[in-house]
Amino acid sequence: MYFYRLIKPFKAITFDLDDTLYDNKPVIDLAEKNLVKFLIQSHPNLKNFNHKYYKFCKSKLLLNNPCIYYDINFWRKLSIKLSLRIFKINSIETNIIAKKAMKIANFWRNKVFISENTHRILNKLSKKFPLIAITNGDLDINKCNLNKYFLKIFRSGKDGYPKPFSDMYDLSAKKLKLSPHHILHVGDSLETDVFGSIRYGMQSCWVNFKKKKIISDLSAKTLPHFEISDLKYLMNFI
């Protein structure tokens, strides 16, 4: 645990989700693997479809409309539909297959592993502080047993621009009815979490599981108030 700024008393905590409360990459990798597998089996035209085609469609959509990054679920849906159109599937079948494919993708996307230790920490913190989740992702906390800890969840797209933009930080402060400096934000990203929350006026905790050196991290635009390598250190504030 390293301190970079003076910590003042805080009355609430906001949490990032992806790569802060669980390892997100294997979840997304598995979700996309099962999505592609479903698409291949869904139509004869797709027998030669593979993950490279899907990644191409995602990249093409992002290149043509960078703002699509702000809504992950919508981006996924359009990527599926573009994949189907490329393989000459008509619009009626595209809509039917895309609807089923989204159910598959969302099912696997929400298969996150939350450790017992993380559950224990969130449970104890939630009894001391009101907690709000702020995410640029699309996890459904109701499907992974995290909802019981959080007063509210804000998602980019539905609830405004993604972090580091201030939209969801502002919504959180208004929901909590607190000044930003009375809120601690906890997250793994030096840009979206640390820079975004500090720019809004909150206090910031950088979750550094990989124990990177902040001085050599090019994504660092400012220093957090403190850094932890394990969520257990948050228990010091109870």
TrEMBL record:
UniProt cross-references to Gene3D superfamilies, sorted A to Z: 1.20.120.1600, HAD superfamily/HAD-like
Cofactor: Mg(2+)
Pfam families referenced in this protein's UniProt entry, alphabetically: Hydrolase
Chain segments annotated as transmembrane: none
Magnesium in keyword set: yes
GO biological process: riboflavin biosynthetic process
UniProt xrefs under InterPro entries: HAD-like_hydrolase, HAD-like_sf, HAD-SF_hydro_IA, HAD_sf
GO MF, any single term: metal ion binding
PANTHER family: 5-AMINO-6-(5-PHOSPHO-D-RIBITYLAMINO)URACIL PHOSPHATASE YIGB, N-ACYLNEURAMINATE-9-PHOSPHATASE
Protein known as: YigB protein
Species annotation: Wigglesworthia glossinidia brevipalpis
